[in-house]
Amino acid sequence: MKQIKIFGLLLGAVIIASSCDKDDDMPAATVYYEQQDQMARPAINTVFVTAAGDKDAFNTTPPSAQGAAFQSKFQTRLLALNAGYTTNALGQTAAQLTGLLATDVLGVSTTGPTTFFDGVAANTLSGRKLDDDVIDVELLLIFGGPTGASNPGLTKDNVNANDKAFSASFPYLATPW
């Protein structure tokens, strides 16, 4: 008799469990994401954010708040790197350049080609193509002065091409070694 009761209880539990539709009765699980890094413009965080605690703060600050939080620190760092900075090849003052760089987003040109820098202010830092030499552009804007010719030893990294050709089809990245 004891075995019949246990069997009945198990059978009842199986029937109840199998008749429940979990999708209709259970709310969707909440998923939380935590931002770890921002890298719209390569090397900006690496070069301009110098205090250890500020690295994480910069990475987790929404772009809309980055300028207010980091522009003055970026400007201090820019002037420490280039004490003779007046304007750059785009005519930007130290405050203008660091205000642009402190907000780590890539703009998009809706009226011209997407390029990191083509020497025309309207297309400056408006996204980037895989083959844009962003480090040379950043060095030029930081050290090149008004004409781009100041400090010629500091305006190029001398890495002039990718080590492997980009693919002609999506995702376009070069294949690994």
Question: What is this structure's SSE topology?
Answer:
Blueprint: H1 2-19, H2 22-25, H3 44-48, H4 52-60, H5 63-81, H6 94-102, H7 134-143
Helix pairs in contact: 5-6
Protein architecture, described:
The protein is an all-alpha fold and 177 residues long. It has a domain at 44-154. The protein is 42% helix and 0% strand. Helix 5 crosses helix 6 (94-102). The longest helix has 19 residues, at 63-81. The mean pLDDT is 83.
User: What is the residue-averaged pLDDT?
Assistant: 83
Number of helices: 7
* Euclidean distance between termini CA atoms: 72 Å
Content of β-strand: under 5%
- The Rg value, from CA coordinates, equals 27 Å
Biggest sheet: strands, sense, closure? Answer: none
Would you identify the regions where 5 or more consecutive residues have pLDDT less than 50? none
User: What is the general shape?
Assistant: globular
Number of strands: 0
N-to-C order of helices and strands: HHHHHHH
In percent, how helical is the residue content? 40-55%
Write a concise keyword list for the protein shown above.
177 residues; globular; mainly alpha
Summarize the structure.
The protein has 177 residues and is mainly α. Helix content is 42%, strand content 0%. Helix 5 crosses helix 6.
